[in-house]
Here is the input.
Amino acid sequence: MILDLLRRFIVISLLAFGGGQSALPLVAHMAVTETGWISPQDFSTALAFSYVTPGPVLILATFIGYRVAGLAGGLAATVGAFLCPWLLATLAAQQIQRFMNHPWLRGFGRGAGPAVVGLLGVTAWSIAQQAFTSWPYALIAAAALALGLWRKVHLIFVLLGGAVLGIAISVVTLPVLR
Here is the structure.
Protein backbone atom coordinates (compact mmCIF):
# COMPACT_ATOMS: atom_id res chain seq x y z
CA MET A 1 0.00 0.00 0.00
CA ILE A 2 2.81 2.42 0.92
CA LEU A 3 4.65 1.81 -2.35
CA ASP A 4 1.38 2.15 -4.27
CA LEU A 5 0.77 5.57 -2.68
CA LEU A 6 4.33 6.65 -3.44
CA ARG A 7 4.12 5.44 -7.05
CA ARG A 8 0.74 7.02 -7.74
CA PHE A 9 1.72 10.41 -6.35
CA ILE A 10 5.01 10.33 -8.26
CA VAL A 11 3.03 9.76 -11.47
CA ILE A 12 0.60 12.55 -10.57
CA SER A 13 3.49 14.92 -9.84
CA LEU A 14 5.01 14.14 -13.24
CA LEU A 15 1.73 14.87 -15.01
CA ALA A 16 0.83 18.03 -13.07
CA PHE A 17 1.90 20.63 -15.61
CA GLY A 18 0.98 24.11 -14.46
CA GLY A 19 1.29 23.61 -10.72
CA GLY A 20 -0.68 21.94 -7.98
CA GLN A 21 -4.10 23.07 -9.19
CA SER A 22 -3.66 21.17 -12.42
CA ALA A 23 -3.12 17.97 -10.43
CA LEU A 24 -6.49 18.12 -8.67
CA PRO A 25 -8.41 16.26 -11.39
CA LEU A 26 -5.74 13.54 -11.38
CA VAL A 27 -5.79 13.26 -7.58
CA ALA A 28 -9.59 13.14 -7.53
CA HIS A 29 -9.71 10.43 -10.19
CA MET A 30 -7.02 8.35 -8.52
CA ALA A 31 -8.20 8.65 -4.91
CA VAL A 32 -11.97 8.63 -5.42
CA THR A 33 -12.86 6.95 -8.71
CA GLU A 34 -9.98 4.59 -9.44
CA THR A 35 -9.03 3.26 -6.00
CA GLY A 36 -11.97 4.30 -3.81
CA TRP A 37 -9.54 5.26 -1.07
CA ILE A 38 -11.71 8.22 -0.06
CA SER A 39 -15.30 9.21 -0.78
CA PRO A 40 -16.24 12.20 -2.97
CA GLN A 41 -17.46 13.96 0.17
CA ASP A 42 -14.13 13.36 1.93
CA PHE A 43 -12.28 14.68 -1.13
CA SER A 44 -14.41 17.84 -1.20
CA THR A 45 -13.96 18.41 2.53
CA ALA A 46 -10.21 17.76 2.43
CA LEU A 47 -9.84 20.10 -0.54
CA ALA A 48 -11.75 22.87 1.26
CA PHE A 49 -9.64 22.48 4.40
CA SER A 50 -6.42 22.30 2.40
CA TYR A 51 -7.06 25.76 0.95
CA VAL A 52 -6.62 27.23 4.42
CA THR A 53 -2.99 26.06 4.36
CA PRO A 54 -0.08 26.77 2.04
CA GLY A 55 0.26 24.16 -0.69
CA PRO A 56 -3.26 22.72 -0.89
CA VAL A 57 -2.33 19.79 -3.13
CA LEU A 58 0.48 18.76 -0.79
CA ILE A 59 -1.90 18.79 2.15
CA LEU A 60 -4.43 16.81 0.10
CA ALA A 61 -1.79 14.20 -0.82
CA THR A 62 -0.77 13.89 2.82
CA PHE A 63 -4.42 13.56 3.90
CA ILE A 64 -5.12 10.82 1.35
CA GLY A 65 -1.94 8.94 2.27
CA TYR A 66 -2.74 9.19 5.97
CA ARG A 67 -6.31 7.95 5.45
CA VAL A 68 -5.06 4.99 3.42
CA ALA A 69 -2.05 3.88 5.48
CA GLY A 70 -1.54 6.09 8.53
CA LEU A 71 1.60 8.11 9.14
CA ALA A 72 3.73 6.05 6.75
CA GLY A 73 1.11 6.52 4.02
CA GLY A 74 1.00 10.26 4.64
CA LEU A 75 4.78 10.47 4.35
CA ALA A 76 4.84 8.29 1.21
CA ALA A 77 2.18 10.37 -0.55
CA THR A 78 3.91 13.61 0.46
CA VAL A 79 7.32 12.42 -0.78
CA GLY A 80 5.68 11.15 -3.97
CA ALA A 81 4.01 14.51 -4.58
CA PHE A 82 7.28 16.42 -4.11
CA LEU A 83 10.09 14.13 -5.24
CA CYS A 84 9.89 14.47 -9.02
CA PRO A 85 9.07 18.19 -9.17
CA TRP A 86 11.95 18.91 -6.80
CA LEU A 87 14.35 16.71 -8.75
CA LEU A 88 13.29 18.10 -12.13
CA ALA A 89 13.46 21.70 -10.92
CA THR A 90 16.91 21.12 -9.48
CA LEU A 91 18.21 19.54 -12.69
CA ALA A 92 16.56 22.08 -14.99
CA ALA A 93 17.33 25.29 -13.13
CA GLN A 94 20.60 25.89 -14.97
CA GLN A 95 19.34 24.82 -18.40
CA ILE A 96 15.86 26.30 -18.63
CA GLN A 97 16.89 29.78 -19.75
CA ARG A 98 18.22 28.68 -23.14
CA PHE A 99 14.99 26.85 -23.97
CA MET A 100 12.52 29.53 -22.88
CA ASN A 101 11.99 30.90 -26.38
CA HIS A 102 11.89 27.58 -28.21
CA PRO A 103 8.70 27.38 -30.32
CA TRP A 104 7.87 23.85 -29.16
CA LEU A 105 8.07 24.80 -25.49
CA ARG A 106 5.95 27.90 -26.03
CA GLY A 107 3.44 25.85 -28.04
CA PHE A 108 3.32 23.26 -25.28
CA GLY A 109 2.48 25.96 -22.74
CA ARG A 110 -0.19 27.46 -24.96
CA GLY A 111 -1.90 24.08 -25.39
CA ALA A 112 -1.43 22.71 -21.88
CA GLY A 113 -2.91 25.83 -20.23
CA PRO A 114 -6.38 25.48 -21.77
CA ALA A 115 -6.32 21.72 -21.14
CA VAL A 116 -5.68 22.40 -17.44
CA VAL A 117 -8.59 24.86 -17.33
CA GLY A 118 -10.85 22.18 -18.83
CA LEU A 119 -9.70 19.57 -16.30
CA LEU A 120 -10.26 22.01 -13.43
CA GLY A 121 -13.78 22.52 -14.78
CA VAL A 122 -14.37 18.76 -14.62
CA THR A 123 -13.13 18.70 -11.03
CA ALA A 124 -15.29 21.69 -10.10
CA TRP A 125 -18.33 19.99 -11.64
CA SER A 126 -17.64 16.80 -9.68
CA ILE A 127 -17.24 18.70 -6.40
CA ALA A 128 -20.37 20.77 -7.14
CA GLN A 129 -22.45 17.61 -7.53
CA GLN A 130 -21.47 16.59 -3.99
CA ALA A 131 -21.68 20.07 -2.45
CA PHE A 132 -25.05 21.31 -3.73
CA THR A 133 -27.37 19.08 -1.73
CA SER A 134 -29.91 21.87 -1.26
CA TRP A 135 -30.42 25.47 -2.32
CA PRO A 136 -28.69 27.13 0.68
CA TYR A 137 -25.42 25.47 -0.29
CA ALA A 138 -25.78 26.74 -3.86
CA LEU A 139 -26.24 30.24 -2.41
CA ILE A 140 -23.07 29.84 -0.35
CA ALA A 141 -21.18 28.87 -3.52
CA ALA A 142 -22.61 31.83 -5.44
CA ALA A 143 -21.67 34.22 -2.62
CA ALA A 144 -18.15 32.76 -2.46
CA LEU A 145 -17.77 33.17 -6.22
CA ALA A 146 -19.00 36.76 -6.10
CA LEU A 147 -16.74 37.64 -3.17
CA GLY A 148 -13.76 36.04 -4.86
CA LEU A 149 -14.31 37.70 -8.21
CA TRP A 150 -15.55 41.17 -7.35
CA ARG A 151 -14.69 41.94 -3.76
CA LYS A 152 -11.28 40.28 -3.46
CA VAL A 153 -12.10 39.01 0.01
CA HIS A 154 -9.29 36.85 1.37
CA LEU A 155 -9.81 33.14 0.75
CA ILE A 156 -9.63 32.24 4.43
CA PHE A 157 -12.55 34.54 5.28
CA VAL A 158 -14.63 33.11 2.42
CA LEU A 159 -13.93 29.54 3.62
CA LEU A 160 -14.62 30.39 7.25
CA GLY A 161 -17.85 32.13 6.30
CA GLY A 162 -18.97 29.14 4.24
CA ALA A 163 -18.05 26.77 7.07
CA VAL A 164 -20.00 28.80 9.64
CA LEU A 165 -23.03 28.96 7.34
CA GLY A 166 -22.77 25.20 6.68
CA ILE A 167 -22.71 24.48 10.41
CA ALA A 168 -25.67 26.80 10.95
CA ILE A 169 -27.65 25.12 8.17
CA SER A 170 -26.94 21.64 9.49
CA VAL A 171 -27.80 22.61 13.09
CA VAL A 172 -30.98 24.50 12.30
CA THR A 173 -33.64 22.01 11.42
CA LEU A 174 -35.90 24.12 9.26
CA PRO A 175 -37.97 21.98 6.88
CA VAL A 176 -37.70 24.71 4.23
CA LEU A 177 -33.91 24.27 4.03
CA ARG A 178 -33.92 20.50 3.66
Notes: Residues 67 and 86 are 25 Å apart (CA to CA). The mean pLDDT is 85. The chain has eight helices and no strands. The chain has two domains: 2-131, 132-178.
